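WARN  no MSA supplied for this record, continuing single-sequence
INFO  ligand: 1,3-dihydroxyacetonephosphate
INFO  echoing inputs
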Amino acid sequence: MKRKKLIVGNWKMNGLKSDLVHIIDISEHAAAHPNADVALCVPTTLIEAAGKISNYVAIGAQDCHAHNDGAHTGCVSATMVAECGARYVIVGHSERRTDQGESNADVKAKAQAVMARNMCAIVCIGESEDQRNSGNAIAIVIEQLNLSLPDVDNIDGALCIAYEPIWAIGTGRIPNMDEVAEMHLAIRQALIIKYGESAHDIHILYGGSMNGDNAQELLSIAHVDGGLVGGASLRATKFTPVIAAASRA
Ligand code: 13P
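INFO  complex generated
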């Protein structure tokens, strides 16, 4: 079965209320490309307002706590972001694994919390430049994946994987097409081992310097079911060509 491509923008720590106009703009452009699904993971402070103005773009969060409530100063739970209207939550982004020291076990617990609240968890994995140069990137990423995957009986559209080579994030560099193809195939195979045939329904996104110039080629690779886009998702002028490429793919 052909999966509709999914393009997710990750605004990271960018965006004030004055930037909501860009979400309206992106949503209107997304409406012209109905063959792609589009989501924007915005800062927590914008989730609710963004949800009210984006008719053609689903809104998501960039993280959540694994627990539902309790003494965790400064954190927000999956229930809280769901209440604000989030439909996706990114978990285990490499920036959080590095900056906040999140472990695979943390990521797994967060993914389970997200799925338990009927949102889609986007589980991020990816190798560092040293790991890529070691020649063991696939084994390293698949181990990270296996330790981060939620233990759930039913996927039901509520799980995505984002393969983001750390060295490609924000650098303008991307792996070659063969490297992307072999990593995404290895991820699919690991997902099938874990979840059986329902793993074919899981979107495997590529992330790391995806833009309007390279999206079409990346999205033509087998098992690249969409993209997780940082810098190029902040404005419709840069994001729309990626959405258009996904709609054509
Ligand atoms: P860039 O698209 O800016 O490289 O960021 C990728 C990313 O980290 C998305 O989560």
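Residues 39 and 130 are 31 Å apart (CA to CA).
INFO  checksum written, moving to next record
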